[in-house]
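#lab-general

N.A. 3:47 PM
ok so I finally got the sequence cleaned up, no stray characters, all 122 residues accounted for. can someone with queue access submit it? mine expired

B.Y. 3:52 PM
send it over

N.A. 3:53 PM
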Amino acid sequence: MNEKKRIEKIKNIKNFPMYYQDELGGHRIRYFVDELDLNWLIQQAEKAEQLQERVEELEMKYENTGAIFNRQYMREKIERYEKVLKEMIEAKDLADWLSQNEWATEADYFVTKAREALEGTE
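B.Y. 4:20 PM
back already:
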């Protein structure tokens, strides 16, 4: 019997209730489910639980992946800002240097900076 037919069979059990009175005089309904069907239902519930755990695990991985991409985006953004700030500092340095050395040109500034950098690496 395939799973769909089995589910339909189990669903139809509710159409055939057995009524009885409990020891306190209350009315109760009892349904009779085949033991194989009951075991199958338990297995299905366990599978559903495992699948739910897997879904939660994958959702967590997906969220972490998003966080990784966000961190990468933020890192790139910070690098862009740092680059602009460095350029601004260098431009300010150039302006200061040119104002202190009225005879100098921009080329003189860059040559001086290049020499300083090379001297620092030797």
